[in-house]
Structures are given as C-alpha cells and as structure tokens.
Amino acid sequence: MTDDELTALIKREAEAAKSYLQTVIGQERADALDYYYGQPMGNEVIGRSQAISTDVQDVVEAVMPDLLEIFAGSDEVGRAEPNGREDEQFADQATDMVNYVWFRDNNGFVVIHDASKDALLLKNGLFKIWGEENEKVTRSSLEGVSGVQLAALDADKDVTIIEAEAYPADDPALAAYLPDGLLYRLTIERKENAGRVKIEAVPPEEFLICENARSLDEARYLCHRVSRTVTQLLEQGYPRDLIEDLPSEDDLPLDQERQARFRVEMDKGSFMGAEGDETMREIVVYENYVMVDWDGDGKAERRMVVTAGPGHVVLDNIEVDDHPFETLTPIRMPHKVFGRALADLVMDIQRIKTTVLRQILDNMYFVNNQRSAISRKVIIADWLVNRPGSTVRVDTSNPDVAGHIHPIQTQSIAQHGYPLLEYCDSIRETRTGVTRMGQGLDPDSLNKTATGMNLLLGRTQRRLLYIARIFAETGFRNAFRKTLRVLIANQDRARTIRVRNQWVEINPAPWNADMDVLIDVGLGTGTQQQQAMLYRLVLEVQKEIVGFQGGVGGPLVKLDNIYNGLKKWLAKSGIKDVAALFSE
Hints:
The chain has helices at residues 3-37, 55-72, 88-105, 108-122, 147-155, 172-177, 230-235, 240-244, 256-262, 342-368, 380-384, 414-432, 436-439, 450-490, 528-549, 559-572, and strands spanning 79-81, 125-145, 159-168, 182-202, 207-209, 221-229, 282-292, 301-308, 313-319, 325-328, 372-374, 405-407, 495-499, 502-506, 516-518. It is of the alpha+beta class. The strands form five sheets. Strands 5-6-7-8-9 form a five-stranded antiparallel β-sheet. The chain has a four-stranded antiparallel β-sheet with strand order 3-4-2-10, with helices on both faces. A two-stranded antiparallel sheet has the order 1-15. It starts with a helix and ends in a 12-residue tail after the last helix.
C-alpha cells in the first residue's frame, strides 16, 4: 500500500465516522447536554412561563455519588488475580502498582468521575490508556571525584558534564592512589527516561468509530480527534516546516456536541483559536487506529496512523498491538458499542413535565391577574397598572360604577396538573430506579412501614448495582487489564513507590500481562454503611472462632484473615489508610 492509498483510506474512514456520529449519536448527545443544563426548548412563547424541569440533571446527579463511592471511594480500582502458580508472587505487586498508576501517577478520581458522568449523560464514557516516555533532566554538583570516576561519568550516555574543575587532593594518603594526584569538582546533568502510563477521560465528541461496530476490539477503525496548537505539535518533535504549512480545520471547534457543552459560557464564535498568533493556531490531529494490510502480506494488522489537517497529512505510521480505548455505558445494548444513557430515558419526561409546569404557572398567573371586560368610561392607564390597592378611575357621574369593569374568571387547573406531574415522576422512577426515597428522606416515609421502605430502597440499590456491575465488567475490568499491559510494556526498570506507608521496589518486567482482573462492586450487600456493618459482624465471628480454636494459628482463622477483615471494614467505613492503624 502506498502513502497516498493509506491517506485516502484514512480520510474515507474518518469522514464516514464523523458523518455517522454527527447525524445520529452526536445530535442525541447534544440534546442531552442541553437538557442537563436546562436550556430553552425552542417552543417558548413571549409573555408566558418559560420554566424548565431538570429531570435529566436530577437523575444523573442522584446516581453519581453512589457510583463514585463504589469505584473511587478507595485507592483500589481493581485487583489482579493470578492465572497460575507462577503469578502468585506478582499478583499483589501488580495490584499495588496499577492502582498507584491510577491514583498517584494520574488523577484517578477525576478520570473516573468524568468518564462515569459522560456515560450516564452521553451514552458512553471513554478511557484512554497509553504509555508515554517521561524524560527528566536533573542538575547536580559533585566534589571529590577521581579521574577514574570522571571517565566513567563521561562515558555514560545519560550524563552530560557541564563544568569540571580540577584541584589537588589535600590528603597525601588519598593522593597516592590517584594517578595524577588530582580530584575534580563537577556540575553534571543526568537524563532519566522513565516510561509512564497515562490515563484520561476522552470527551465523547473527540472519539470516532466506524459505523455498526460491535465492540472496540472488533472495530476496523477508531480515532481520537483533538485540536493541538502549532507549539504542542512542535514540542512532540514533528518538523516545523511540515506543521506550519498545515491548514486549520473548522468542523471540530464548531462540532454540535462541543457547542452544547460550552453553550452556557460561550457563543458559537468563541471556539476559535487566538487570532494573529501563529504559535497558538489550532490544527485538528487524528490519532487513527485502523486495520489495514500495509505491508501487503494479505493479512490486516492494526496500525496507529497520526494525520493532521483536513487533508490528513500523515505524521506517524506505526504498527501497534492494541488500541488505547475502553468504554463505559450504563445501559448496555447487545452487539453495539453505543448503549443508552440515563438521560435517554428521561428526556421525554422532562419535555412533558416542562409543558405541564408551564401550563400550571400560566394558569396561576391568569388566576392572580385575571382579565377584565371594561367599558369605554374606564381610564385605560389606571386599569393597566396592576398592583395591590391601586385605584381605577371611571369617567361617570353615577354613584355606582358597577358594570364598567367585569372580571373574566379563569378556572384553576392546578388540581389536575399536580397529579400529572406526580405521574410523570413515577414513570421516571420506574425507568431509572432513582426514587425520591433513595435521594433523601421523604416527609411521608415516617408513615410507611419499615418493610415497604426497605423494598423501595432495595429496588433502587439493585438498579444502581446493576449499572455498577456493567461498568465493572465491561469498562473498569478492561481498563485495569489494559493498564497492566501498558505498564509491563513501558516500564523497563524497577521503580520505588510508597504503598501502605512503606517504600517498595517493584519491577513489572516478569509479570504475566494476561493476569485476570477482579473489580469488586459489593453486589447484593447494600450501601457502604450496610457493607461496613456486615464486615463488623464478620470480625465478631472471627473473634469467637479464635477463642474456640485457642489462638490465631488456625485452622479456620489466622492473622491474615483478621487483617483482611479489618481492611475491608475500614475501607467500607471510609478510612483509606489502613496501614496507619494496623500492621499487616
């Protein structure tokens, strides 16, 4: 395949994916953002109520705290499980290292929050996990360096000697061991190349995928489409003459989803880059992952082809083993990448409730400010001033002005409107599982039976845990496994990290990249408080068994079992630093 053929293929795939997403998925996601922000619906009438019901926002924000407590409530997003005996010694290290990468090397809480919220609101949340070289240069001063040591430093390709000053050794005994009797005072720069794993939540509008893909792994085309400035591209090492000749592209800054995301703060024209500053001019870069037979062996392989600008000028073309994306969706649709968001379930409810709410408010305005039939003798200016206690003059000499002003009665519809709003709320609760009792104490809940309340809360929890289970099995598990693989591929040396208040040296080189992964979402055990109570009961049972067996030597309960119970109990109680309280 020639470069021109590859460019043409990439351009066709990108244009087809953009057309599909912008005309179908993109419009639905833009609508969801507008509904979340409570934007006007376009059917407002001047002089009438323009109130907006915020059901999409209410449902999403009601679910978010519990999901974050499940996945980001501790410093452990998942656990590596050994596939065989050879993995036993490395599984705990892999667990510690991958979770360290998520929450220390990267801002794991923000990544989990953003991807989860995107999924609840915009159908899919996206993780991007990739390896990145992290070059660090440190400058230091050395004194008392011998000639042999100087030669060794000079031969080290990672060390640059900035300044060297020779001086005679003061100690005669030391000078006797030096060939020239000299020591050196040095200023050096040491370069460290350490591979790091980067994790981010990709905005859904920046992600492209071929139409009708059944999964990310089976998709023939994936792409991360993002704007980069000329300066950013130059810093990545691309040639200046190539980058400065690339034209800008307007369809990404003006994308309908991006407009909806920033509609509250900005108008349409404010998405463009800084005018007049060439270094900050934005260029659209496509990080394409495409299955293609580049080498002509009759078998398609996955390649990362980085292109830029509307003409898709190729900047990089590399064969890769895998793509960097994983996705979350709250309502999984079989055999499809795009699922359904909670927002999709309640947008029509928000439209109906908005209409009913406006009708009720308009009716109340008419009841409180009713229209009147007036005669020609009423002073119009007085009658138009509608305030309590105001006087309306009538141009008549008759002592009785009755008949000149006749109120037109408006029938209140509130008694019909409020039950309709309640009915809409019940439909929303049935569809989403988010009940008012689950969001806080209902004033009438004290009058309900304990069994009934437990059933309501149990139904809400099961729906939430259903979403959490889908997140865990289809998103977080794959993301954890992908992090493990990228870590093994990119960290080529041992690294010292702080785990449970101890400094531990971890080298991922001998690990099995195919170790299994377990994501614990506490299925069937209720809320975090209920789970903490459950583990507290387990500790009580362990205490009784220790007394029965006469110590912690087994066979039923050992010290490791007790420590694990304490760790679980404290984690569910909201205490992360177990090592500060108990020793393993």
